[in-house]
Design goal:
Structural class: alpha/beta
CATH superfamily of the largest domain: Glycogen Phosphorylase B
Radius of gyration: 21 Å
Strand content: 15-25%
Number of helices: 16
Helix content: 40-55%
CATH architecture of the largest domain: 3-Layer(aba) Sandwich
CATH class of the largest domain: Alpha Beta
Distance between the termini: 11 Å
Order of helices and strands: EHEHEHEHEHEHEHHEHEEHEHEHHEHHH
Shape: globular
Largest sheet: 7 strands, parallel
Number of domains: 2
CATH topology of the largest domain: Rossmann fold
Strand order of the largest sheet: 3-2-1-4-5-6-7
Number of strands: 13
């Protein structure tokens, strides 16, 4: 009998990994069913959506209460599905607050739990590792330094590498990608990645658009392309068309946007790793509500916010967080990266070190093999 796997991811980056993992599972075991909480990438890979995650992800503590009714309804729906379908395993991808509750309920049914793309406990709320040790039959980590952290805590763990290495691969030149996106093939190109959650787009995008105006005033032939996450409302992108430089908006294909870019203005998160894989210098920004920022800082235990800086162990690219994030500061950093050849070369050398640290291609396949092994499926 062909097995079923229940999978849960709650935001766009997790959905990207879920889609790649589903394709890898189906390549190894034709007919396998993967179903659960996900989005367009999971569905496009042949996954079955028990529930769509749009709107579930939140930024900051104060946004959580309004989501509680939907969290509870979604949790109940997935537990009911697990009770009925008896999956070979539950695969949870990041999204700890929801997925830990789901894992506890499903594990109580005697179903193995695999945590793929584990929470960043080394940066934020390390006490969560106790819950993961209790719930996970295996943790599959995507950064090499994570493996020792989990192993030392007594958690079964395997480093599989970063799935974005395969997802970001492409043979087309920048000029060819620009032509495909309707951009001038040889003009300096600035990418804008404002995030995938509604709250962060609302807080980040207007200042990035203002930064684009300031960049254009200093680099006359600069052109701009914006990566829009799917399932983000149209109204949040109105600043991109409200005067200022023309901005090409591309929906659901951040990799193409990054492949076209000379510099990227990006929200902190998975996009910084994508930019590194595309060999693009970046200005990393982030802004939370003042209450969320004040509360959240108490739980942060690292020197850097940007993932590429954490991996490099150094401030490889600028981080403009909270009050430091201004259009003027963003524009100054971006113009420097476009015009200062020595600085650009230094950043590119650092990004090469980051890419080497992320492991070899084939992460999704290695994750699929590990999952099939835990689930005792051949």
């Amino acid at each position: 009998m062909t097995p079923t796997f229940l999978l849960s991811c709650g935001e766009a980056s997790g959905d990207l990994y879920a889609g790649a993992l589903t394709r890898a599972l189906k390549a190894r075991l034709p007919g396998v069913r993967v179903r659960g909480l996900g989005g367009p990438q999971l569905a496009a890979a042949g996954g079955e959506l028990v529930e769509e995650f749009s709107g579930l992800a939140v930024t900051g503590f104060t946004a959580i209460p309004a989501k509680i009714p939907r969290f509870r309804a979604t949790l109940a729906k997935l537990v009911e599905d697990a009770t009925t379908s008896r999956p070979a395993a539950l695969i949870v991808i990041d999204f700890f607050g929801f997925n830990a509750r789901l894992a506890r309920r499903v594990k109580a049914l005697g179903i193995p739990v695999i945590y793929y793309v584990s929470p960043q406990i080394w940066a934020w709320r390390p006490g969560r590792i106790k819950t993961i040790r209790e719930l996970a039959d295996l943790v599959l980590v995507i950064f090499p330094f994570e493996e020792a952290i989990y192993r030392d805590a007594g958690v079964p763990v395997q480093f599989v590498g970063h799935p974005l290495i395969d997802l970001a691969a492409g043979a087309a030149s920048k000029q060819d990608v620009r032509r495909r996106l309707g951009l001038a093939p040889n003009a300096p190109t600035v990418a804008i990645l404002p995030g995938s959650r509604q709250g962060e787009v609302r807080r980040i995008l207007p200042d990035l658009i203002e930064a684009a105006r300031k960049i254009q005033s200093q680099v006359d032939d600069a052109q701009f392309v914006l990566a829009r996450a799917q399932n983000v409302p149209d109204a949040l992108f109105e600043p991109a068309s409200a005067g200022g430089p023309p901005i090409t908006i591309v929906t659901g294909d951040a990799d193409a946007v990054l492949a076209a870019a000379d510099v990227v203005l990006t929200a902190s998160g998975t996009a910084t790793v994508q930019a590194a894989l595309h060999d693009v210098p970046m200005v990393v920004v982030y802004r939370m509500g003042s209450i969320e920022y004040t509360l959240g800082r108490r739980f942060v235990s690292v020197k850097h916010y940007a993932m590429v800086n954490l991996i490099a162990g150094d401030r490889l690219v600028p981080e403009l967080i909270q009050d430091a994030f201004t259009p003027e500061a963003v524009a100054a950093e971006a113009v420097s990266m476009l015009t200062d050849a020595d600085r650009r070369a230094k950043i590119l050398a650092g990004l090469a070190r980051v890419r080497r640290a992320l492991g070899a291609p084939g992460a999704s396949g290695r994750a699929a093999d590990a999952i099939l092994n835990v689930a005792a499926v051949q």
